[in-house]
Amino acid sequence: MLGFSNNNVSTPLALDMERIVDEYSTALLRVAFLYLKDLQLAEDAVQDTFLKVYRHYGQFQQDSNERTWVMRICINVCKDYLRCAWKKHVVPFDVLPDVPDEGFKIPAEDKILVKEVMQLKPCYKEVLLLYYYQDFKISEIAQILQIPQSTVSVRLKRAREQLKKRIEGWDFD
Asked: What is the number of structural domains in the chain?
């Protein structure tokens, strides 16, 4: 865990950061992993997210939800990782590696579904992940992605349609 207190003196910001880390770390790691498809890179992205939250906590405007604000930072960090020069020189895997069970506890049939979700275009994938895996409302997703709510709704509808075509005929019992 990140140490935010100095000389064992707890400041209000340190207490808030400890709460934020405890409250959001698992959800952020899931989203980062699904974006980056690499557990170590996802862990780095989560650390960078918490550092940005710490540095910019004073700029957080209470007009939005804290959870939405933190998630938007994480997604932007992941997008930055995907844009960096190092990532462009790495040969991507054709198949998503197995979703790690540690801390995720995803049933086998859901792992297959996650792999199918990961095959979608990024704009569809991100709305599905935020809506179904992180339980954000459409209005919150619109804030996170900084797009209109109607765009989020359309992307969700199209993503569902594409997934439905991909998984037709599957039998999950």
From this structure: 1
Q: Is the pLDDT of residue 131 over 70?
A: yes
Tell me whether residue 7 is in a domain. Answer: no
Distance of CA 42 to the CA centre of its chain: 9
Half-sphere exposure of 171 (CA within 13 A, CB side): 1
Look up the domain containing 95 and give its range: 12-167
pTM value > 0.70: no
CATH label of the domain that carries residue 83:
1.20.140.160
Residue 98's SS3 state is: coil
52 within a domain of the structure (yes/no): yes
Classify residue 5: in a domain, yes or no: no
CA distances from 115 to 9, 34, 59, 159 (A): 45, 9, 37, 14
Bigger pLDDT: 46 vs 126? 46
DSSP state of 152: H
Structural contact between residues 17 and 66, judged by C-beta atoms closer than 8 angstroms: no
Long-range contacts of 129-136 (CB under 8 A, 24+ apart): 129/31, 129/34, 130/31, 130/71, 131/156, 133/30, 133/31, 133/34, 134/27, 134/30, 134/31, 134/71, 136/68, 136/71
Q: In this predicted model, what pLDDT tens digit does every residue of 44-69 receive, in sequence order?
A: 999 999 999 988 887 776 667 888 89
